[in-house]
Design goal:
Shape: globular
Distance between the termini: 48 Å
Strand content: under 5%
Number of strands: 0
CATH superfamily: Flavinator of succinate dehydrogenase
Length: about 100
């Protein structure tokens, strides 16, 4: 049972990694791909579905506007995911 869980979790993480790196625009690919590579170990298992919801809900244009602080995070995105994304934005110096 544990082995099956680990296999399914690995598949799910691979899916999220792929979706993070293959958004549609190069800028969003680089931002979300590098974010996921850096933070996938910090996203709690119960919040992985919230990250997937974020990927579904926010398009590339909005992501770039959010990074530039010209657009607010959608209200339906989990706070834990927003906090990690904000930490990444600040740690990489996207906002001055």
């Amino acid at each position: 049972m544990l082995l099956l869980y680990k296999i399914l979790m690995k598949k799910y993480l691979n899916k999220l990694e792929y979706r993070s790196w293959h958004r549609g625009t190069k800028e969003a690919d680089l931002f979300l791909g590098k974010f996921f590579d850096k933070y996938k170990g910090k996203i709690k298992k119960e919040n992985l579905s919230h990250y997937e919801n974020f990927l579904d809900a926010v398009n590339d244009d909005k992501i770039m506007l959010i990074i530039k602080n010209k657009y607010e995070w959608p209200k339906d995105i989990a706070k834990e995911i927003i906090d990690l994304l904000e930490d990444y934005i600040k740690s990489e110096g996207f906002r001055k």
